[in-house]
Design a protein that fits this description.
The chain is an alpha+beta fold. The chain has three helices and twelve strands; from the N terminus they run αβββαββββββαβββ. The radius of gyration is 21 Å and the shape is elongated.
């Protein structure tokens, strides 16, 4: 009323609508930029946890899963092993995998841990990783000798280890490259659920 109250009646209604729509758009953009953001699963690296669309190599669905990343959570706590995260692609990853942008992978190694893979099995600090995220038929990929993850960095792997271009190829991901953790699948309808 303060802003539009002095306008003649038809213009007051138009101004009210413009302000309301502008405010709504502003709120949506703020939420998208700072709280929650949608992403599409583009490859088979996270099959069968998340599906990509056929005819992509290794894709098991007719539609790609659409997920929501919680962009707030890592401002209040550290990332945990086993979390699926969205992160900006390191330049080495873009060079190795041939595609940049944003990746979706699972955190396997935490800062300061020693990690290795032998015979398709991941070891963290010399102990076999209890890898409940990966089925036996998807284990494998490139073995690598033990090395220690840098402070403030994370080691990422896809759940489809045989078809994932991940930290085994291009190394660690620094914490400031993390966007957020995947908290929800919102499409397709039959896949809706929290993760």
């Amino acid at each position: 009323e303060r802003i539009t109250g002095r306008l003649p009646d038809p213009w007051r209604t138009v101004a009210d609508w413009v302000l309301t729509i502008g405010l709504a758009i502003g709120v949506v953009l703020l939420v998208k930029a700072y709280a929650f953001n949608p992403y599409r699963i583009p490859s088979s690296s996270m099959e069968p946890t998340f599906h990509c669309a056929q005819p992509g190599i290794g894709c098991e669905s007719n539609r790609s899963d659409r997920v929501i990343a919680n962009r707030i959570v890592f401002h209040f706590r550290d990332p945990n092993r086993g979390e699926i995260v969205v992160f900006n692609t390191p330049s080495a990853a873009e060079a190795q995998c041939g595609v940049g942008g944003v990746y979706v992978k699972r955190i396997i190694g935490l800062p300061g841990e020693e990690i290795s893979q032998e015979g398709g099995v991941v070891f963290v600090n010399g102990e076999r990783l209890a890898d409940q995220f990966v089925t036996d038929d998807r284990l494998g990929g490139r073995d690598f000798p033990p090395f220690t993850i840098s402070e403030d960095s994370y080691f990422m792997m896809g759940d489809n280890r045989q078809q994932s271009c991940d930290s085994r190829d291009w190394g660690e991901v620094e914490r400031d490259m993390l966007i957020g953790n995947v908290s929800l699948v919102y499409w397709p309808i039959n896949r809706i659920g929290f993760r």
